[in-house]
Amino acid sequence: MTITLAPTLSAHGASIPALGFGTLELGELGAGLVAEAIRVGYRHIDTARKYGSEEGVGDGIRASGLPREQLFLTTKVTEDNAREADFRRSVETSLKALKLDYVDLLLIHWPSRTVPLAETIGALVAAKREGYARHIGVSNFTLALLDEAVRLSPEPLVVNQLEVHAYLNQDKLLAACRRYGMIVTAYSPVARGELLTDPLIAEIAKAKGKTPAQVALRYVIQHPNVAAVPRAFTAEHVAENFDIFDFALDEAEMRRISELRHRNIRIVDPEVRRPVWDQP
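Request: output the structure for the sequence above.
Response:
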């Protein structure tokens, strides 16, 4: 079987497949779905200590039989472990759960409200320099936090992982990441299913002979230097989400979908962790 691979995006020496497999809330299905994702063609897997999916991700990678060096694997350190010593323990715990020696990308999952960013960035940089991660970055960082993180880090930050989909205007952050030569990894790229019933998305999907999910994902990855990490709970949806490289949205379709951003719907907005979000 010939396998199509996603195109890759480059930033500061990192080469990241434009479509990855998200593993939030997969539970006991995780190992099997990760192995299936790799079989279909995914080479970018996204997990986090907070997800509780790292053990399953590691098992799925080994079950796939694919050599480790052919995968791009991301994990994250929760804001609960923002202190230097806690951060290091979290990374070591992640690698133990994954049964791996390193990850390709290590992210600060959420900015801490109580720990100085300089301390957490220092721990992030140390993890890279000690060989735990090949590349480093951040997640859920606003414009001001991103500026501060770049200023504080002596090592290049390659990713800011953000909620990005057709219902949310993230133009300012997308532009800022481009200025810093960073990739944006989009989580919740179909707005946790909200976009699947949108009339415009359905209309374009019908015209393209594709599904609403495929159109919503294609919209996201057609933005410059943006990757997406959708999750899926069945083998059918794993394959459906990956089948987006045989078509493109034209300028008019991209423009029409972009008009949905006026809704400005944020799906992931936890009271205990969220920063003060930038306004459109």
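The CA atoms of residues 22 and 265 lie 21 Å apart.
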